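Quick entry between incubations.
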Amino acid sequence: DAGVTQSPTHLIKTRGQQVTLRCSPKSGHDTVSWYQQALGQGPQFIFQYYEEEERQRGNFPDRFSGHQFPNYSSELNVNALLLGDSALYLCASSAADRGLNGYTFGSGTRLTVV
Amino acid sequence: QKEVEQDPGPLSVPEGAIVSLNCTYSNSAFQYFMWYRQYSRKGPELLMYTYSSGNKEDGRFTAQVDKSSKYISLFIRDSQPSDSATYLCAMSLNSGGYQKVTFGIGTKLQVIP
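Done. Structure below.
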């Protein structure tokens, strides 16, 4: 049973470019949350998707947007990249009826903005 | 003041030692308390999940919550080199009908053989 799968694992982009990160949730999970983890910091909540809609959002600018597909997979898009966007981007999936006890993280996508 | 405070360490202990990891928090609305383990270049892995004040034990791990002091702890008995990782505390509260999760900065632990 595959866990949470994220792609790509590493990415290097130039300041001002746009990037799309992808996440496939664990089998049986229908909710996807995205986090940004800067070096030496804890994960910071970006947003959460359920039933193809964004239902919660953290303190991130509109440059960060997302999407959830009918198969529950999700994308995170970041426009107009800044050097400060360099971080590990984590996807976590869960089942809406199990709450946080079933929260499962992927290994993340490491984004470097140069 | 951050909602969740955690000493980043690093913490180095000899194999077999008892490890104590701690977090304090300021928001009394936090309801659920979690500890995650994160190995280098990996995502966090849920270790312990508690709701009420008191202790919860799972093998070599014990999670302790003291809501009156706004203080949570994770104890690791008979520590092993494989326990070397970063340990993140996390807490959640109900926000608009959904659980909002806040993480600590993480404590880096090294268990020396």
